[in-house]
Amino acid sequence: MNYERKVEAMDSLAGSTPSFYDEGESRRKRTRLIVALVLIGFALAATWYAFTHRGTGAATAEGADGAAAQSVPNVTVVIPGRVSVQAAIAANGTIAARREMPVGVAGEGGQVIRVLVEPGQWVGAGQTLAVIDRSVQTQQAASLSASIRVAQADASLAQAELERAEALVSRGFISKADLDRKRATRDAANARVRVAQAQYQEAVARNGRLNIVAPAAGLVLTREVEPGQVVGAGSGVLFRMAKGGEMEMLAQLAEADLQRVRVGTRATITPVGTDLQIAGQVWQVSPIVDMNTRQGTARIAIPYSSALRPGGFADARLVSGTAEAPLLPESAVQSSPDGNFVLIVGKDDKIERRAVKVGTVTDGGVSIASGLLGTEKVVVLAGAFLNPGEKVKPVIQKSAQ
């Protein structure tokens, strides 16, 4: 019994051995398959990762380039060239009468009875400005007039006596010596008549000078006399007049500008506080320059205008010819404590600062006297927001001509 069981057990063990080996082989195959699949997965993942990050890097580079391109600002520039502009000189100064006439007491003076004019009034040559009391002088003139008649009566009597003596001398009733004395008496009487007449004319002339009169036609500027005032030779100037109403501007010019001004140079005068533009002409250029201010005076003749007040201030623009120069918009020219300057787009499209000297300012823009050739790319706007060395993209607009 035991023997049979042992045989059966051995048979059973012998029958199960092949199955065990088959299962081990299957597990090894499955393991290799899994490892292969994992490796394939890693390879696919690596490939995907490589392609994905390569595309992202390119996109990032392109985005950076695009952002950099977008960060460069567009700047409007102009190439001014050179145009013909009027060479003008700006100046300022005071208004004055071109020929001022101070009027005072010409005679012996006296008490003023009436003043007949006011400042701003036009008067003619010889017109009475003020009347001075002449009551005493009138009586003196009347006395001299009477003395003329007395002298004439004496002269008439002397002439009659001479005629009678001449009639008697032929009869021997009177000597020639007496006749000569009669003739001398007659001549002396006639001389006294002439003296009396001269004295009277002197008195009349002196009385005529008592009144204060205009020496020439013109405009009364000031009045320094009132009725009741006693005036005389030491009273000074009582009236000031502008001969013919002619005015002038005493324009103060720098020494260099004075060299460019000639007699006949045209000018436009603008009195302070007005928008008037009065045409004038330089009629005299100062032959000297003030050593302290380094300035000279150009006298500009201007016609009368009610806006012109002697002693007032005015601006002048003198046109001294034409010149070729760059012309820029006013927005392109900036100022600093060091002077005027402009920004230009130079090499590699980078901002550069250029110092300039401003010339004539016209309705068309600002002419540049020096500092530009006219071929530069000048920044028109936004100059205050740009710095030298900054890179920009210039956009050229039409010239400021």
UniProtKB/TrEMBL annotation:
Residues annotated as domain Multidrug resistance protein MdtA-like C-terminal permuted SH3: 327-380
Keyword annotations: Coiled coil, Membrane, Transmembrane, Transmembrane helix
Coiled coil: 148-206
Domain CusB-like beta-barrel: 251-320
GO CC terms: efflux pump complex
Entry's Gene Ontology molecular function annotations: efflux transmembrane transporter activity
SUPFAM superfamilies reported for this sequence: HlyD-like secretion proteins
Domain of life: Bacteria
Keyword Transmembrane helix on entry: yes
A Pfam family of this chain: Beta-barrel_RND_2
Gene3D superfamilies attached to this UniProt entry: 2.40.30.170, 2.40.420.20, 2.40.50.100, Helix hairpin bin (1.10.287.470)
TM stretches of this protein: 33-51
Family named by the database record: Belongs to the membrane fusion protein (MFP) (TC 8.A.1) family.
PANTHER family listed in its UniProt record: HLYD FAMILY OF SECRETION PROTEINS (PTHR30469:SF15), MULTIDRUG RESISTANCE PROTEIN MDTA (PTHR30469)
Protein name (Swiss-Prot/TrEMBL): Secretion protein HylD
Record gene name: hlyD
